[in-house]
Amino acid sequence: MPMTVNPKAWKEVEQFVQDCFARFGSMNKNNYEVALFHLLLRNGFDTCSDFELSVKLQIPESKVKRLRYEESLVYPKGGTDANLYYQEQLAMLLLSRQYRMHNDRIQFAIADKHFRLYISDALMCDGRFADTSFNTNIVVISVADLLYLLEKANIKSAETMKTIRKSIENGNKEEEKTVASALQDLTDEMLREMLRKVVSDKMIDKLEGFAKLLKEKIEKLNNKKQKKL
Predict the structure, then answer these.
(1) 129 with 120: CB under 8 angstroms?
(2) Is residue 55 located within the same domain as residue 11?
(3) Tens digit of each residue's pLDDT (9 = 90 or more) over 143-174
(4) Sheet of 100-102: strands edge to edge?
(5) By the 8 A CB rule, do 90 and 116 touch?
(6) Is the pTM value of this prediction over 0.85?
(7) Domain finish residue from 74, 100, 132
(8) Which of 80, 93, 175, 218 is the most buried (most CB within 10 A)?
(9) Which secondary structure element, helix H or strand E, spans residue 171, and what is its range?
(10) Using CB atoms within 10 A of its CB, is residue 149 exposed (0-12), middle (13-18) or buried (19+)?
(11) End-of-domain residue from the set 19, 44, 74
């Protein structure tokens, strides 16, 4: 029985060959590896975790992480509107995380080095920072900083943003409680309207879960603090 080749995959292979010929003589071993890695990601391997790829390719996970990062730089996504791409991806990323609260800080995992650096840069540009000292894949930020990132992703109402900006200026815990109260006052319909600005309707149900979870966690945190007083 003859083997059939996916036309899209074959087109990707042809593009890979053309790129290699166009850059022949200037590409080193690492350049070829990055190009091949890009080809793999374009043909079904993009859903694999770093661990899964390391097993399939029989290379250390650290090398997979490096190749993934270099591939994102050599083959940037987003086309001519990179800012919109980053905004949409930031929204999708933040709203699909599993969050933990520890000592008034929010923890969440991001395996993608490219977006960890993007988040770190976004925070640094506003005089903020993310802590990844415990584990490079784990980002630790304050509630106010998470709300700042949500604002940057354009998924907050103007009214809530005024409260957030006030908390940024004052920089104290009492103002952070005000921000939490503003989140808790949002209705489900308001959340849906905010989400519609950046994502399709089919993603809203999933993304709403994050907003509700965040509101619940902030409320529990505040209740816990009040009990201690």
Answers:
(1) yes
(2) yes
(3) 888 878 888 887 665 654 555 455 444 543 44
(4) 100-102, 105-109, 138-142
(5) no
(6) no
(7) 74
(8) 218
(9) none
(10) buried
(11) 74
